[in-house]
Specification:
It is a single chain. With about 350 residues, the chain is α/β, with parallel strands linked by helices. The chain has one domain: TIM Barrel (Alpha-Beta Barrel). Helix content is about 35%, strand content about 15%. The strands form three sheets. The chain has an eight-stranded parallel beta sheet with strand order 2-3-4-5-6-7-8-9. A three-stranded antiparallel beta sheet has the order 1-10-13, with helices on one face. It starts with a strand and ends with a strand. Bound molecules: N-carbamoyl-L-aspartate and zinc ion (ZN).
Length: about 350
């Protein structure tokens, strides 16, 4: 039996750090275990231009505690007014690693996102030309489409047409939650990858709704039926290089989660690697954890793998704080619903 596992230091290919007091509180939680992360741009107002991204990167680096290393990989928030030349310049200077597409109204702070996808075609073509990946929040927003079907419908109605219209565009389907997402990635060899979150490997929709509503399990895309969770686990633990970790750790202070109109987002930065070790062990796939968390992401983004390592050690149940304190209010840490036995050391 494996009791200790040393892997390349992981990266998080989808992370929300926010700003101000929340940024200060959550950044060390990620930097403790992760070398780099793709930083989501859905601030209020969003990170739209290269100038915005440079300023946000500076605020992140200023919030990093002394002695901690961490590289934020910046993204731009795609709007119908985005200037392809600004995107190209931000990419050429090394400032940004991806552009993020939010369908307008799909999720937290997505009001400035895209309603008419034809209006961003010029940006997408520029991105295909320069090899800059597009990270996609893959849910339609039409009110007549059931929320549990929105990812599957997005693939057919939006994503596939965009990819056909833009040959060479490199796309990451972010936080896939369905077997449909897994199958779509598997059926398309080139230029397509997908991130999978920690929590979608662990919870299905029953965890949110049975026995009382659990606001800390509510996120978008919302967790689906068990068959979908199983498909995600098979993809994550398979070693297939097209699937990699993007935690979508999305902090909201407790008063905004425990609310009559609670925000979407699970905060998993603190215990993600312990959760994943437990999941991969449950599935007899600990030998694939490094591929999922540390190798497949850099390969897709054409970046070097980290030189440093972390070691996961199995022992008595690991203590992690149930909440992170923050000047703006406490932030509840994701509860996987089972004890965690794998501790992480750098
Ligand atoms: C994210 C957030 O809070 O910014 N929420 C979430 O439920 N995942 C936005 C997102 O990634 O959809
Ligand atoms: Zn997200």
């Amino acid at each position: 039996m494996t009791h200790s596992l040393t892997i390349r230091r992981p990266d998080d290919w989808h992370l929300h750090l926010r700003d101000g007091a929340v940024l200060n509180a959550v950044l060390p939680e990620t930097a403790r275990h992760f070398a780099r992360a793709i930083i989501m741009p859905n601030l209020v107002p969003p990170v739209v231009t290269g100038v915005d991204a440079a300023a946000y990167r500076d605020r992140i680096l200023a919030a990093l505690p002394d002695g901690m290393g961490f590289e934020p990989l910046m993204t731009l928030y795609l709007t119908e007014d985005t200037d392809p030349e600004d995107v190209a310049a931000a990419h050429a200077s090394g400032l940004i690693t991806a552009v993020k597409l939010y369908p307008a109204g799909a999720t937290t702070n997505s009001a400035s996102g895209v309603s008419d996808f034809r209006k961003v075609q010029n940006v997408l073509e520029k991105m295909a030309e320069i090899g800059l990946p597009l990270c996609v929040h893959g849910e339609v927003t039409d009110s007549e489409i059931d929320i549990f079907d929105r990812e599957a419908v997005f693939i057919d109605r939006v994503l596939d047409p965009i990819r056909r219209a833009t040959p060479g565009l490199r796309v990451v389907m972010e936080h896939i939650t369905t077997k449909n997402g897994v199958d779509y990635v598997r059926a398309n060899d080139t230029d397509l990858g997908a991130t999978i979150t920690t929590h979608h490997l662990i919870i299905n929709r029953n965890h949110i709704l049975v026995g009382g509503i659990k606001p800390h399990y509510y996120c978008l895309p919302v967790a689906k039926r068990e068959e979908h969770r199983i498909a995600l686990r098979e993809a994550a633990t398979s070693g297939d290089a097209r699937f990699f970790l993007g935690t979508d750790s999305a902090p909201h202070i407790d008063p905004l989660k425990e609310n009559a109109c609670g925000c979407a987002g699970c905060f998993t930065a603190t215990n993600t690697m312990s959760c994943l070790a437990e999941v991969f062990e449950q599935d007899g796939a600990l030998d694939q954890l490094e591929a999922f968390a540390s190798l497949n992401g850099p390969a897709f983004y054409r970046l070097p793998v980290n030189d440093a390592t972390i070691t996961l050690t199995k022992g008595d149940a690991v203590d992690y704080p149930p909440k992170i304190e923050c000047d703006a209010g406490d932030i509840t840490v994701f509860d996987p619903g089972f004890p965690l036995h794998w501790s992480v050391s750098a």
